[in-house]
Every structure is written in C-alpha cells, then in structure tokens.
Amino acid sequence: MSYLYNLIIFRALASLVKLAYTVNTNSSTDTRTNVQRSIVLLTAEWPTTGANLNTSYVKKAFDDYGVNLLVVGFNLTDTEKSKLIRGASADQWYNAVNTVTTNNDAVATFVNPYYFNDKSATNFWCPMYPVHPTSSDNSSFTFQEPYNYDGPYSTDGQWTVPFDGQTGRYCNFANNQYTINRPDNADGMTVTVFYELEAGKDFLNFYDASNNLIASFTGYDISSSSFYTATPVLTARFTSDNQSVFRGFNVNIKPHPTS
Ligand SMILES: *[C@@H]1O[C@H](CO)[C@@H](O)[C@H](O)[C@H]1NC(C)=O
Ligand SMILES: *[C@@H]1O[C@H](CO)[C@@H](O)[C@H](O)[C@H]1NC(C)=O
Ligand SMILES: *[C@@H]1O[C@H](CO)[C@@H](O)[C@H](O)[C@H]1NC(C)=O
Ligand SMILES: *[C@@H]1O[C@H](CO)[C@@H](O)[C@H](O)[C@H]1NC(C)=O
Ligand SMILES: *[C@@H]1O[C@H](CO)[C@@H](O)[C@H](O)[C@H]1NC(C)=O
C-alpha cells in the first residue's frame, strides 16, 4: 500500500463524517440526535505503513459529529492486520476486525461486541471512565459516561442546546458497574448526579452494600439530583437498551469526614 493511499484514507474518512452528518444542523428536522451512529469501512486492503487515523485529526472529526468508526478488513495480510488492529495499548479509538469469510459467524465478530455490546471483544467506542478522585486529597470522586461527557458538573452548570453542546453519547446495550468504597475516615457520602438518559429505558441505579436499590435515575433533570448514603460500599450500575442514546451522566461523590 502506498503513501498516497494512506493519505487518502484518513482524509476521506474525516470528510465523510462531516458530509454524512451535516443533516444535524437543521434542528426542525428529524436530526437523529439520539441514535448511536457509526461509519463502517469494508476493505480488502490496509496501508502496510499504517493509516494515519490520528487522534488530533481523524478521531477529532468523528468526535465532533458524535460518530463511531468500524473498519472491517477482509483477508488482510498479517502486516496489514497489525497496522489496523493495534489494541488498547496503542490508544486505539476505533473498532476493527479482520475476517476471511462472510458467513454469520464472521458477521457476529463485529455485530456482537460493537452493536450489541456483549463484551465478547473490547469495544473502543465506549471506553470506561472509572471512578477516580477529583483532587489529590480525595475530598471527592467522580465517574461518568460517555467518557467524553461534557455536560454540567456543578449546579450552576447547564446542558447546552441539543446535540451540538455535546456530541458524545453513551452506547446501546451498556451494562457497566462502578464501585465506590466509603473512605475509612468518613461516615457517609453525598452523591450528586447530573444526567440525561432515555426515560424509562436507560437507568443509572445505585445499590448499598446489601444490594438494596437506594437510588435510581432515568430521564432528565435540569440541574442535578443528590442523595446521602452511609453505606460502606456503594455500587452503581448503568444499563441502556437498544434504542435512543443520550448525553449520559456525571456522578460526584463527596465523603463526609468523621468529626
Ligand atoms: C429545516 O427543515 C424543515 C423541515 O424539512 C424545512 O422546512 C426548513 O426549510 C429547513 N431549514 C433549513 C434552514 O434548511
Ligand atoms: C495528524 O494528521 C494531521 C493531518 O495529516 C497532521 O496535520 C497532524 O500533524 C497529525 N498529528 C499527529 C500527532 O500525528
Ligand atoms: C486470502 O489471500 C491469500 C493471499 O494473501 C489468497 O491466497 C487467499 O485465496 C485469499 N482468501 C480469500 C478467501 O480470498
Ligand atoms: C486517596 O485514595 C487512594 C486510593 O483510594 C489512596 O491510595 C491515597 O493514599 C489517598 N490519598 C489521600 C491523600 O488520602
Ligand atoms: C429492542 O428493544 C425492544 C423494545 O424494548 C425489544 O422489543 C427488542 O426485543 C429489543 N431488541 C433486541 C435485539 O434486543
């Protein structure tokens, strides 16, 4: 594969995503704002020098339009495969498979993990953003979906106008769990949730250490919602169905130090 092909492929992909999704600029039409969107490139070749699907140009173009990329290779050589399928350690942001057949099993290798999110392969479209402290003194912790959530983080924050304010969406068929251990020096935690989820279908649920449901979020809240819990172990589970995907959630957990 030549250098030229390498250049063409990333420019074509970045331009295609813009061309295909400018439909969203007219807010009075069916804008497909809340569907999981992807471009699938079916190809029998891949640059052996490596296509430049770099994060500052090609990934940015996809992120700007809230679109995911799937590359399905057919009978690629080992060198081509190694350049296409690089793995998590190479900061891969798109999904990619290679197949030598076109039967149902081959189709399942990309439909099941990426469209049904069945965890049979790493889904690079929905990377986890695990619980982590927001400051070095552990005075609060956070987690969110999608990983590039850009909605409100504080009660004076606002969701911006639909779609363009945040192109990122969570994935269909999400089933992700987060565990928050109450710090030893705390007797409780205040949990604040900013969320925009498909009402009645996609849920962010919180469970205490005995697995009792203590809070459940679905739909949309203009500012935020909070609750207090004394549980030593708080588990959050986010589940989504096969239909709309919205702008997701940000959770902030503030431990109350024992006085
Ligand atoms: C947006 O779409 C509506 C409905 O199809 C149409 O009437 C309107 O002219 C469009 N606006 C623009 C700026 O294209
Ligand atoms: C990414 O690709 C663009 C377009 O070719 C280029 O201008 C930019 O320098 C590249 N960035 C990196 C980090 O490779
Ligand atoms: C795959 O490519 C090899 C050559 O690299 C060729 O011999 C083989 O027939 C191809 N298989 C299919 C299914 O096209
Ligand atoms: C913050 O928490 C992490 C792990 O939860 C721990 O390793 C670290 O020592 C804590 N830092 C402080 C300042 O308590
Ligand atoms: C998608 O959701 C609908 C409505 O909840 C359900 O009837 C259908 O079985 C689901 N399809 C799949 C493939 O899960």
Strand count, sense and barrel status of the largest sheet are: 5 strands, antiparallel
Strand element count: 12
Q: What best-fitting shape do the alpha-carbon axes yield?
A: elongated
Order of secondary-structure elements = HEHEHEHEEEEEEEEE
Percentage beta strand: 25-35%
Can you walk me through this structure?
There is one protein chain. With 259 residues, the chain is an alpha+beta fold. It folds into two domains: 3-115, no CATH class; 132-257, Sandwich (Jelly Rolls), CATH 2.60.120. Helices cover 19% and strands 29% of the residues. The chain contains four helices and twelve strands. The protein has helices spanning 3-21, 55-65, 78-84, 104-115; strands spanning 38-43, 68-74, 95-99, 132-133, 141-145, 175-181, 186-196, 203-207, 213-217, 225-229, 233-239, 248-257. Strands 4-5-12-7-10 form a five-stranded antiparallel sheet, with no helix packed on it. It starts with a helix and ends with a strand. The mean pLDDT is 88. Bound molecules: 2-acetamido-2-deoxy-beta-D-glucopyranose (5 copies). One 2-acetamido-2-deoxy-beta-D-glucopyranose binds at residues 241-242.
How would you summarize this macromolecular structure in one to three sentences?
The chain contains four helices and twelve strands.
List keywords for this structure.
single chain; 259 residues; alpha+beta; Jelly Rolls; 2 domains; five-stranded antiparallel β-sheet; four-stranded antiparallel β-sheet; 12 strands; 19% helix; elongated; binds 2-acetamido-2-deoxy-beta-D-glucopyranose
